[in-house]
Write a structure and sequence with these properties.
Length: 219
Amino acid sequence: MSTIAQASPTVTPARRALALLAPIGPLVMAGWALTVPYQVADGPAQWIPKAAAGVARLQVSMWMLLAFALTAGVGAIVTGLVARRASPRLGTAGLVLTYVGFSALSFSGAGYDAAAVASVRAGLDVAATERILAQMHTFQAPSAGGAVFTPMMFLGVILLAVALWRGREVPRWAVLSLPASFLLVMFGGFIAMPVNALGWLMLAVGFCAAGLAHLRHPA
């Protein structure tokens, strides 16, 4: 009598690395939200003095934006790969839109902070710094980055959530954290930065759950 041994799927180091990196981008942005000395909704008159008083924190936050730029796409890719198993079209669309949104945010995020730090170091007053930032607005590409981020992230996480909900590989509570995170990220900047940070943490939870699902079902 012969028996057939069924080997469990091998989880490669590359897959482990992807699962580990999946939540890092949103976690970094949660740290960013708790580090910046200003609130996203602040106008130049409020934002520039806060930036001038918190140059060290602002410099740390810019390094965080760089870390986000290097890692954020991994979470979108891993979550999209898991979502694609249940719904190839929705999963692919959600992956692409979320990835584009993160890329746009990475491109536009640190420019104004760097200009504020440079202006403070050069000894410029608030009025002069405001004029510099106003001129930066005339460059359309950096300004467009922030405008692209909002709709791309919104549509991306919604499509990913719908596909993951159909697939049932990720717990329902983790799936719901994706659209909930968008609301907190968007409105948290107008309420309080800890609320914004909570939104990024919720997104990290969703990406982490998708990373674990990616490990459980290697292709």
